[in-house]
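Table S5 (text form). Sequence records supplied for joint modeling of the two-component complex.
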Amino acid sequence: MNVRILSALAVVLSGALFGFGLALSTMIKPEVVLSFLRFNDFGLLLVLGGALAVALITYQSVPRLLKRALLNGSFAQRPTAALKNTLIGSALFGVGWGICGVCPGPAIAGLGAGNWPLAITVVAMLLGAYVQGRFARVN
Amino acid sequence: MDISTLFPAGMAHYVVGGLLIGTGVSVLFIFTGQVGGMSGVFSAVWSYVSRLPYFQQAQFTATRRWRLLYALGLIVGAAVWLLLNRADPIITHIPWWQLALGGFIGGYGARLGNGCTSGHGICGLASLNSYSLLAVLVFLATAIVTAHVVSALGGA
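The corresponding structure-token record, covering 295 residues in total, follows.
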């Protein structure tokens, strides 16, 4: 198998682990997310903490141990938006999240567990992303 | 105070789920070097259909393929969970207008701020990015306030 196919499989596997985790932790139920935001169940913090702990170890240690990623390429850095856009965008993202209890990962993963109304959110997020790009400045 | 009152549904499934999510992010990074937030796919797919210069930037055209596969993986993983669990499909009772309005505002905001709960909350914090820490504090604050307001107004 060539590297291209192997890396496609690795990406699907990583997404599947992510999606399985979102389903197991019930984050694909907007009701559970909203009950966190209303201080009735703090489980979301355990999910975030668990995920962050593993990712932190990986991101901080792997680039020191390996020169390149196992299948291809160098280790990417997250691009950052300007401070103003980070603040305004995040504030709006929180408002949207607080209205529906769904963020991008669970919106997509929920479809796999039969939560079909989340397709409404997926389409709405696509439209929101389009409007953002339509009016964004390109350098 | 009894800690179990903070977690009326139990704790284990939250912790194990979180560890699996972190493992998924790690597998992506170790094998392909990519940093896997989720909101990027919502902009990247537009690069297939829109000629707007914004969507034709390399950050979307060069990542759209793996981002779509990553999203496909999310669906596969949740479907595997459903099959293993032999559970009934989970169907939310949140009204459609909340799903639509929240999705639109959240999608716009996540892309403007270049990240969501996974992009800033997991990947950004794990990269020790100070903007991501700010982003997380800001979106947690506005989400908590909004969820309380929606509840007070009689929303689900």
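Note: Chain A touches chain B through 117 residues (CB under 8 Å).
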